Structure formats: C-alpha cells, structure tokens
Please model this.
Amino acid sequence: MSEPFKKQIKVTQPLLPDQKDLAEKIKEIWDSGQLSNSGKMAVQLERDLSGFLNAEYLSVFSNGTLALQIACKLLNLSGEVITTPFTFPATVNVLEWNGITPVFCDIDPITFNLDPDRIECLISEKTTAIMPVHVYGIPCDTDKIKSIADKYHLKVIYDAAHAFGVQRNGRPIASFGDITMFSFHATKVFNTIEGGALAYNQPGLKERADQMRNFGLLPDGNIAVPGTNAKLNEVQAAVGILLLKKVGEEIHRRKERAAIYTDLLSGIPGLRIHSPMESVMYNYPYFVILIDETEFGIHRDTLFEHLKTHNIMARRYFYPLCSNLECYMNLSSSSKDRLPVANRVAEGVLALPLYGELSDEEVSYVCAVIRESRMSIDAGV
Ligand code: T4K
Model:
C-alpha cells in the first residue's frame, strides 16, 4: 500500500491575487478612505463582471446566500418553490428564511440537476417559482424549465454558485431565467474571499436589489421596502478585480488536471466520471466521481476514509441530501421514495481535489490510491 502523501492534499485551494498587486490596490483604498458602501472598487468589479459574464444587469453582494435571499424578495416569491435536494444547504435555507416552503424534485441521473420531467407534477396553486441549481457548474435543461415556467407563469431563479463563466450552446449561463446567482466564496473558481452576484434579465431588478443590499435606502433617505446589509466591501472587490485577470488561466490549469484524472481513472468498474456535455464551455469547479458500491467493491464512504488515511481530503458534495437533513426531513416532498435518484447519487458522489496549483504528482497519487483501494479488496486485504 502507498505511504500517506507527504502533505495534506486539500479538496480545493483558493485562487489568490499577487500580494504586490493587492498591496497597491489596498494603498488606493486606504488613500481614498472609502472602505465600503459601493465605493470605486465595488463599482469597477460590477462593471468588469458584467463584461466577463456577459450579463448586462448585475450587482455584487457580500455572499451568494444573501444574494439569493434578495433574489427571492425581488420577485416577491411566497408559498412554495420547487428546488433540488441535491445542493449545498444554502439554496434551501434561503427559501426557509423567506418564509417559503421548499418542494423537493428528484434529479436527472446523468447531469444530477433538477429533472425537468418531474417538475410539473409538483406544481400546486401555491407554487410561485422554480429554483434549479447548475450543479458542479453543469447547466440545467434550461429550455424545458423555461417552457414549464412559461406555461404555469412561474419565476425561475438559477443558483449558479458553481457556474462562473460557463456557457451553454454559446449562451452565457446568466442569460437563463429571471435571475441568476453566483457565489464568490474562497472555495470557488473565482472568489472575492466571500462574495456573490445576481444577474437579472431586466434593469429594474438591479435598481431594487442595489437598494435592498443597502438596507432598502432610497436616494432621499426614505425606505420603501425594508432591506438588509449585503454589501461587498472595497478590499473584497479589489481581490475580485485582480482575480478576474487570473481566472482564465486557473480554469485552463483545472481543465488540464481534470484531463489527467480522466485518463488515469477511466475504465475502473463501478467508477463513473461526472463530466459536462459537449455543448458546454465548462469551468471545472470540481472533479466528481460516482461510486457504485456493487461494481466498485467498496462503498463511497470507505473510499473517502481510505483517501483520508493517505492525506487526501476529498469531499462528499452533496451529502447528506438536503431532504434528509433534520430541518427538512419532515416535508412531504422529502420522502425517500419520491427522490430515488437523488438519494442514490448522494450515496455515491465524491469530489476529488481540484485546483490550478494541484501538481501532476498529486493527481497521479490520488488516482493510484483509488485504484489501490479496489485492488486491496480484490486481494482480500
Ligand atoms: N448554492 C450552492 C450550490 C453552493 O454550493 C453554495 C456554497 C451556496 C449556494 C452559497 O454561496 P455562499 O454564500 O457560500 O457564497 C464550502 C463553501 O463554504 C460554500 O461556499 C460552498 N457552496 C460549499 C459547496 O463549500 P465547505 O464547508 O466545504 O468549506 P470548507 O471550509 O470545509 O473548505 C473546503 C476546503 O477548502 C478545505 O479543504 C479547505 C479549503 N479552503 C477553504 C477555505 C474557506 C482553503 O484552502 N481556504 C479557505 O479559505 O463549504
């Protein structure tokens, strides 16, 4: 058996700006004395991101969760919203925080995104919207979701926390739905340490969201709709401005690492590599495998622990399934027999380490340990 790796291999590592460049930006901020409240850096980042993401109307926020909460308020969502249980809990928590009941819909076995063919039967007179997630940055079936939303007059908010810079059939990911949310958390392909953005399909939404992230304050000091505090500060915005220049190279490096993984892990019985369709210009946020215990020989959790003993910190994104969390398990839509695909996928997925700085040696080592874990079973070790 391989020795544990000499240092811990984390599932991800943040993309960082050059310290010298950041020091220059911080000097600029210090000199101006403007640290927050839509200062020069935040305004520039919004403009830069609008161009990069091809999103004409866009606002930045202090994190993706608050951005999503504001998106629900902007569209006056209430009652029930159909969403996926196969996501980070933030997606579902946002609905609860808006007093909305999440209604879980099963997922597609290939993309792991909301299965559009299962949405219609969940629509009730209380349904106001659909909130799908572009899981691991792989786009949802936006055409089918749009036609259902149009038919029933529902709003669509896409959680694109993972989909920074992704395109489908040449269309930017922000161009689908009423609103699209991006997360700029440190663990994302592009980050502002903490941060997020909303892209809207109409200018009026941006104007109202910009008020809501600043307590709801209007230019005359009045407040028409109570807002919150979800502003991105100037230092975070400066990090974003600098990282926007590096993110293309980061995605390229990740693509190369993903190709090595694919090469070294292909053909292992019971191990499926989760990858995007050809129509997608992808951003490689995660490298995800799906383990079928029967064919692979061991359960995903055994492999997960085995990797840990070798200093490899993989992650079970997304496990437990949101519908199985204590706070959501009593919803009628959480019942396991209504979500067979999501429950099966959550038991099998594993995100392997992936980031630009990951070395070829580290990728090869991870793959060797995975192969070895199976061989030890074959040999009865
Ligand atoms: N919707 C979806 C679909 C999401 O995935 C998320 C967030 C959201 C909405 C909400 O967006 P935000 O409000 O976060 O903007 C992480 C992130 O905290 C979370 O942002 C992310 N999704 C989720 C999928 O993953 P953890 O609990 O896995 O993070 P943590 O601290 O365990 O870190 C993971 C690895 O990254 C570790 O190996 C250490 C490394 N790391 C982490 C940080 C924070 C670093 O090397 N440096 C760092 O600064 O949640």
